[in-house]
Amino acid sequence: MKLVSTDPSELGVLSVGQFAHGILAFGQFARGFIAIGQIAVGVVAIGQVSFSVLGVGQVGGGVAWFAGMLGVGGRGVCLRLIPGLDRPRDPPPLVPVDAAMRGEVRGFVRAEVVDGPRGAKLAVGGHVLPVKMSPALLGALTDARRAGQVREIFAHLGRIGNVVVCDRLMEIPGARPSTFGLPFQILRFLLLVALATGWWYTFTRVEG
Q1: pLDDT score of 202
Q2: What CATH number does domain 97-171 carry, 2.60.40, 2.40.50, 3.30.310, 1.10.10?
């Protein structure tokens, strides 16, 4: 291996040329640990067409991460094959529903979300709670209910005069139904394996 190579048949620590193969490769077709070129294949690659573990390009793929106009990758700005993980959230401390309705305490209660004639309603044990919400809060809850995103929710209740008011809502961690089923997740995994296999073959076998 040469320190600097311009010959496409020889590897170099730094390789430059139309066909560049090296640890650091710069060329029209570049292949290396770090590759930059019109077509770039590497562990880290930047190019119009990029195929990598971590990459950026107009078109391409990255096994772990990729960003581009049209691409597929584990994560990144592309069609993602590794599902995103929501930040873990701890549920709030709860207060008894009866005590909150009587105005003895203020706090969160766990309530069902049911349909009503003028939007979503809060209920416990199938009985609708006589609770007032702001139009914005009611609208958000109604939209989420109609989209099938929530069946239960944490509602913060407090009594003001003779009226019980809900001034905050919090989604129950893990309660939202999955957007995609098991078959899609299996397909996602298989595509990630195919992407990794294709990258490894291109990186180790294909010559410029």
Answers
A1: 85
A2: 2.40.50
